[in-house]
Amino acid sequence: MSSATLDVPTLETLVSAAVAAPSIHNTQPWRFRLDADLVTMGLRAVAERGLRHMDPTGRALHLSAGCALLNLRVAVSHFGWEPVARLLPDPAEPGLLATVRLGGTVRTSPSAARLYGALWRRHSSRLPFSGQPVPSDVLAELGEAAHAEGAALSLPAPQETEGLFRLTRLAEHRNANDPDRAMESRRWVHEPDGSALGMPPRTLGPQDFREQIPMRDFGAHRHPDVLPARPFERQPLIALLSTAHDRRTDWLRAGQALERLLLVATTHGVRASLLHQALEWPDLRARLLPEEGPRGNAQMMIRLGYGPEGPSSPRRSPHEVLDRPTGSVLP
């Protein structure tokens, strides 16, 4: 496929694929711009949609942007181009998180086609899972997906999982008792208001009746009319995503790894929900990975299993996130 075939409908589909990615609290902190002369898409941060109290360093914002970047790469490949990505390409423009140049033509593989189909169906499920075990070969494929993007995926043993839940419960307690964080969390939960941002209450899901799995309550504090309690799976499957280093580039790589493994999970019918609370407190985040073995930096805690897909969150349209292209006018 040549660059001349990058028409407006194709461009808008690429952007729609990118914004189908998950973002913390569905803040969607990104904008896109096409340099038509270079046939390159730029991904920029929208700082005002960052979470100032919960994510003061911007780590979660970079993870969210990394997820969108992976989706963009998958979509570019689907349309027959080689996606050539660069992270933080311009030190003089720190808000430019990545660029993706549409390189030479490629043939779409069956696995790439499955990922492209999955990105339109993937969304988090905060509902109870069935407890049916995820096959070992699927778990191995998820680990390979993370490794392909420069991250590692570990599967803690049941006793280690309980320790992770204790840290997450502590973080949830801190969040509920921190006025700034509690208000920030509540602000992003609201009925649809035309902005296509934030989380409708229907997407939050219930709390665990057994109080084993600490699902985020988004400031609702388990009010029975808002977040009812239901029994969740007795033996939750938790995965930890980590990177060797903890720089901005590592955060972007972790986001791409997260989205790739979520897409692979979706192709196998595996649901996922993200337990991010403990990662929002530096002292708790440092305790998520075991002390023995190679040290790493925890980037996300993921609950995996089989169950209902759950309701989806709204997404912004290409017109709302795409700046006017620079360079030659598209045909």
Q: Output the CATH class name of the largest domain.
A: Alpha Beta
Strand content: 15-25%
Number of helices: 9
Helix share of residues? 25-40%
Topology:
Blueprint: H1 8-19, E1 30-35, E2 40-45, H2 59-78, E3 81-87, E4 96-105, H3 110-121, H4 136-148, E5 152-154, H5 158-177, H6 179-187, E6 207-208, E7 229-230, E8 237-243, H7 248-267, E9 271-275, H8 282-285, E10 297-305, H9 318-321
Task: Give a quick rundown of the structure.
This protein is of the alpha+beta class and 331 residues long. The chain is built from 9 helices and 10 strands. Helix 2 packs across helix 7 (248-267) and helix 4 (136-148) runs antiparallel to helix 7.
Task: Describe the protein.
The chain has 2 domains: 120 residues, NADH Oxidase (3-Layer(aba) Sandwich); 170 residues, NADH Oxidase, CATH 3.40.109. Helix content is 34%, strand content 17%. The strands form 3 sheets. It has a 4-stranded antiparallel beta sheet with strand order 1-2-4-3, covered by helices on one side. The chain has a 4-stranded antiparallel beta sheet with strand order 5-8-10-9, with helices on both faces. Strands 6-7 form a two-stranded parallel sheet. Helix 2 crosses helix 3 and helix 2 packs across helix 7.
